[in-house]
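[[Local backbone shapes]]
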Amino acid sequence: MIRGLLFDLDDTLIPSSRLYASALRACGVDPQGDAYRTARARVKERLDAGNPSRHNRALYFQELTQGPGPVSASQGLDLLERYERALEGLIRESWAALGRDALFARLSARYRLCLVSNETARTQLKKLRAMDPDGRYFEALVVSEGVGVEKPALPVFEEGLRRLDLPASACAMIGDDLARDLLPARALGMQVIQSAEFVGGATPEIPGIPRLAALADLEGLLE
């Protein structure tokens, strides 16, 4: 019997990839422009694969605004703050448009809920504030930065199970990515469900793993 649900956050609960790009454009940054792409690539090149700081937008914006002269903290921080405000507003709007409050009110009444996500704590906390400002739905937020490794590393999922105080056999993992979300969770003994709402055909189907066209269909699958 399923008693706990672990959710990936980005591109599972909200269309993060699209919202990131929209928030950057709202700040005057072209997400596909050479300047931003080069700044992000430089940060990623300096950090080992699997290091959660590779997602840190503060590092991207520092790289983007850093010129040959003295360092100006204001430029990078101002850009970061504008970006975060824009992103949080867009997430709030998306969450409401998707009708997520009604869905998660029902789910949280029946199951214990936990978020397990790659990314930095600051970014994911801001997303969670936009989605669930009163802390009504999720018992725990586990981010890779706090564990020290990124999904698909098993400690991220194990920490989620520990926070819910439930065995893997009593939990289901819902995520968009087969390699990072579903296969490692299944290796631990969880039931797994793929949400393809925002990824469509970008990820392959695997026999034996249920696939949702919309997260709103999850309740019917769990019954």
Notes: The mean pLDDT is 94.
